[in-house]
């Protein structure tokens, strides 16, 4: 007898019932299931007696790529039912798909999300034919609420249609070749008894054809596997030097729900669990009650009349749509019609797939939460765990960090034991393991904070997160370093954040690959602001670290040197629109601090940096704020400032470009060298060697007074932003000098404290003057009585 192929939709109760019934009727010799073949030696572990949902978590890592994927299973997954029922019927049960590390699964994080996108066009046409809103409603209409009689034939027709119009990619063909080899081997070993093959319906037509024809005939699959001595296809091994593996983790209904981003199978797992256990009608009745209870618990008034209306609408929609029993969308549409009286700004979410949009109506949120359910799986106590799980438990016990779910911790980072505790907690944090959250502590390399506070949070998902973190390594420090390396390579984080996280986790746990990845990422940065953050973080730690043991260390010295070199190169070529780029100015300030206070690790001399700054300051194509910053940097780095070409002369030159450009230039200058105006010496410049601050104040005052009102108002925002770089006391000192220039005796502090926005006051004064001028022009000005 040949193979019997059942094409299924993942996580479909109707398909699960068909599989269970077919196993009972067929009593096959073999049950072959779409799933990772490397788990075949561990099926006893999979069938221990877990509380579902659980998932087979697979990971892969080599020098070029890293990937993780999940194969989730719940009570009503056809694959799970095939395993359970097949084993109970005495059949040999095997997974027959390629391992998750294989290139056939490139870019896929969910094994069972393989065909959803490729059948979208076909299902869209079917939705139009059956007048339903979404593929999920179409599936319910054709399979979930219909009687089970004839379902196998309907599924065959459905999948033949969608596969016939869909396009299989290279990965699909490789997987199907491999699965077909397992089917042929099973048929040969069955001794005439039936073989049941349970796979996603997308693959079913191809598997039938490949099995009947004996394969593709082009040898495309042979390079990946050989036939073993037992007659079964061998399981491909990862390349040499790669780290790959699979193990079980708990899963949850939330992770299975399409409305939280799940990519495959049925949405609303809580609802379909009820369908599986009690049938469609009982699930519909239970959903009505659950939604009302959730809304009432959140103080949303729902009357008995509302419940009756929702039930009546559901029944009416069920009959109107020709459903023999209420479908999920019938219940949801009935609830929406009865409970929502507001105008909605978009279609109801069950007419499509994907996460809920921000601003979704609260009643809709509660409906979908009730559909989703709150179940979380639990592994059997005898389930083998990755080595990292045991290592973490031992470390937490040794450091007295296992004090229970309500325990908080206050750590003194100057104490060696507390510092080790901090590093362990930070390693768990970067690995995404829930349980404790840091609520206080140092935020950057120069933050003078030496205590940390950690508070308890919900540990939900901790067991699964620890198991998944095991993909990064068996040792906590190594795993954290690998996770940081992956973050760095993905380019999702600013390297400064990764660098500081690495410091918090303990530099002893840094791997060579992480250091190489960080250096490569820093060398490839094109935004001065991001590179400035890296330089500022590493410079602060190199100069001031009293906790982590990094002060004057070679690791940060290399980062500082590389960041300064690249920043000077980027800044000299910078172009861009008018305005003040604050991150870029902070980057110039970081270069200033590195050259002045950390010359030892730098390959760039002070004179070279000063020459580059001078060139930027004179470049008319450079942004005005950067020119001002470079001007200030050049003056700070010169051992003696020349008498000519001081700030006063530069201000006069910049004023010709307009008040906005002058304001931007001043912002750059003040960001780097406020003492040019305040008169304070600092940053390594000898007292008396700089310019006369009175001359610069005088030039600015004269220029501002000479401006027409409209030009002054146009440039006022930029000028205000420039002087915002001064702290209040220095602004008060400058205001006092301006009063002295006018011979006015008064409080400079009061001058700075206005009752309204100064820009608004200036505009109001200009408007009043304009009105006065108009009145005088037409002879309507006021006269003395």
What's the arrangement of strands in the largest beta sheet? 1-6-2-5
- The chain-level mean pLDDT equals 81
Radius of gyration: 35 Å
User: What structural category arises from helix and sheet content?
Assistant: alpha/beta
From the N-terminal CA to the C-terminal CA, the straight-line distance is 119 Å
Stretches where pLDDT is under 50 for at least 5 consecutive residues are 217-223, 684-691
Shape: globular
Describe this structure in words.
There is one protein chain. The chain is 53% helix and 8% strand. With 785 residues, the protein is of the alpha/beta class. Strands 1-6-2-5 form a 4-stranded parallel sheet, sandwiched between helices. It has a 3-stranded antiparallel sheet with strand order 4-3-7, with helices on one face. A 3-stranded antiparallel sheet has the order 8-10-9, covered by helices on one side. β3 and β4 form a beta hairpin. The longest helix has 20 residues. It is globular, with a radius of gyration of 35 Å.
Chain-wise SSE layout:
Elements: E1 3-8, H1 13-26, E2 30-36, H2 43-46, E3 54-61, E4 66-73, H3 78-88, E5 92-97, H4 120-130, H5 135-144, H6 151-165, H7 170-189, E6 195-200, H8 204-213, E7 243-250, H9 253-256, H10 269-278, H11 280-297, H12 304-320, H13 328-339, H14 362-372, H15 387-398, E8 409-412, H16 416-430, E9 436-440, E10 451-456, H17 462-469, H18 476-490, H19 495-505, H20 512-523, H21 528-544, H22 554-572, H23 582-597, H24 606-618, H25 624-637, H26 647-655, H27 659-672, H28 675-678, H29 693-706, H30 709-723, H31 728-741, H32 748-752, H33 758-777
Parallel strand pairs: 1-6, 2-5, 2-6
Antiparallel strand pairs: 3-4, 3-7, 8-10, 9-10
Helix pairs in contact: 1-3, 1-10, 7-8, 10-11, 11-14, 12-13, 16-18, 18-19, 18-20, 19-21, 20-22, 21-22, 21-23, 22-23, 23-25, 24-25, 25-27, 26-29, 27-30, 29-31, 30-33
């Amino acid at each position: 007898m040949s193979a019997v192929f059942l094409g299924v939709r993942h996580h479909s109760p109707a398909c699960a019932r068909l599989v269970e019934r077919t196993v009972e009727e067929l009593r096959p010799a073999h049950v072959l299931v779409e799933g990772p073949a490397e788990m075949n030696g561990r099926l006893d572990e999979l069938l221990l007696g877990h509380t579902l949902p659980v998932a087979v978590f697979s990971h892969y890592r080599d020098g070029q790529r890293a990937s993780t994927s999940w194969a989730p299973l719940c009570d009503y997954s056809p694959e799970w039912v095939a395993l359970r029922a097949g084993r109970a019927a005495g059949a040999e049960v095997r997974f027959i798909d390629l391992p998750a590390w294989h290139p056939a699964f490139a870019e896929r994080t969910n094994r069972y999300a393989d065909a959803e996108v490729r059948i979208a066009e076909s299902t869209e046409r079917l939705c139009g034919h059956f007048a339903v809103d979404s593929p999920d409603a179409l599936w319910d209409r054709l399979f979930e609420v219909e009687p089970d009689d004839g379902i196998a034939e309907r599924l065959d027709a459905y999948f033949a249609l969608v596969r016939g119009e869909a396009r299989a990619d290279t990965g699909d063909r490789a997987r199907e070749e491999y699965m077909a080899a397992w089917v042929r081997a099973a048929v040969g070993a069955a001794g005439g008894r039936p073989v049941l093959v349970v796979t996603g319906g997308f693959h079913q037509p191809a598997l039938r054809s490949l099995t009947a024809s004996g394969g593709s005939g082009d040898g495309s699959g042979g390079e990946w596997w050989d036939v073993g001595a037992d007659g079964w296809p061998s399981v491909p091994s990862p390349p040499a030097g790669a780290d790959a593996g699979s193990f079980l983790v708990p899963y949850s209904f939330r992770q299975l729900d399409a409305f939280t981003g799940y990519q495959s199978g049925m949405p609303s797992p809580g609802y379909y669990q009820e369908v599986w256990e009690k049938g469609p009608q009982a699930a519909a009745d239970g959903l009505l009650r659950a939604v009302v209870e959730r809304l009432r618990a959140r103080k949303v008034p729902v009357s008995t009349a509302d419940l009756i209306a929702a039930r009546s609408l559901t029944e009416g929609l069920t009959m109107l749509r020709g459903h023999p029993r209420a479908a999920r969308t019938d219940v949801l549409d009935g609830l929406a019609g009865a409970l929502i009286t507001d105008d909605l700004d978009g279609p109801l979410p069950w007419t499509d797939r994907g996460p809920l949009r921000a601003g979704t109506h609260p009643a809709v949120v509660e409906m979908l939460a009730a559909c989703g359910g709150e179940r979380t799986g639990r592994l059997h106590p005898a389930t083998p765990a990755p080595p990292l799980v045991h290592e973490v438990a031992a470390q937490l016990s040794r450091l007295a960090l296992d004090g229970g779910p309500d325990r908080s911790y206050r750590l003194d980072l100057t104490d060696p034991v507390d510092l080790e505790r901090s590093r362990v907690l930070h390693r768990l944090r970067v690995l995404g393991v829930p349980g404790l959250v840091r609520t206080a502590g140092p935020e950057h390399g120069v933050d003078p904070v030496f205590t940390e506070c950690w508070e308890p949070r919900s540990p939900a998902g901790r067991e699964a997160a620890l198991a998944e973190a095991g993909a990064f390594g068996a040792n906590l420090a190594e795993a954290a370093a690998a996770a940081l390396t992956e973050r760095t390579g993905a380019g999702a984080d600013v390297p400064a954040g990764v660098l500081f996280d690495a410091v918090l986790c303990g530099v002893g746990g840094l791997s060579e690959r992480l250091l190489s990845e960080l250096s490569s990422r820093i060398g490839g940065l094109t935004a001065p602001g991001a590179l400035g953050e890296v330089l500022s973080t590493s410079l602060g730690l190199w100069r001031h670290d009293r906790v982590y043991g990094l002060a004057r260390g070679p690791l940060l010295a290399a980062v500082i040197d590389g960041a300064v070199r690249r920043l000077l190169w980027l800044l000299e070529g910078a172009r861009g629109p008018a305005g003040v780029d604050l991150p870029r100015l902070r980057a110039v300030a970081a270069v200033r601090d590195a050259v002045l206070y950390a010359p030892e690790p730098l390959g760039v001399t002070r004179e070279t940096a000063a020459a580059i700054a001078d060139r930027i300051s004179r470049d008319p194509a450079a942004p005005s704020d950067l020119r001002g910053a470079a001007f200030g940097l050049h003056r700070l780095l010169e051992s003696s400032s020349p008498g000519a070409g001081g700030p006063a002369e530069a201000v006069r030159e910049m004023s010709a470009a307009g008040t906005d450009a002058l304001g931007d230039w001043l912002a750059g200058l003040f960001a780097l060298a406020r003492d040019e105006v305040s008169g304070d010496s600092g940053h390594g410049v000898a007292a008396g060697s700089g310019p006369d601050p009175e001359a610069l104040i005088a030039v600015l005052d004269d220029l501002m007074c000479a401006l027409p009102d409209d030009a002054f108002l146009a440039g006022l925002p930029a000028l205000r932003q420039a002087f915002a770089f001064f702290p209040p006391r220095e602004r008060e000192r400058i205001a006092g000098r301006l009063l002295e220039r006018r011979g006015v005796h008064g409080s400079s502090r009061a001058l700075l404290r206005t009752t309204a926005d100064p820009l608004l006051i200036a505009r109001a004064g200009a408007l009043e003057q304009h009105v006065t001028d108009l009145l005088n022009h037409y002879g309507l000005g006021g006269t003395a009585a």
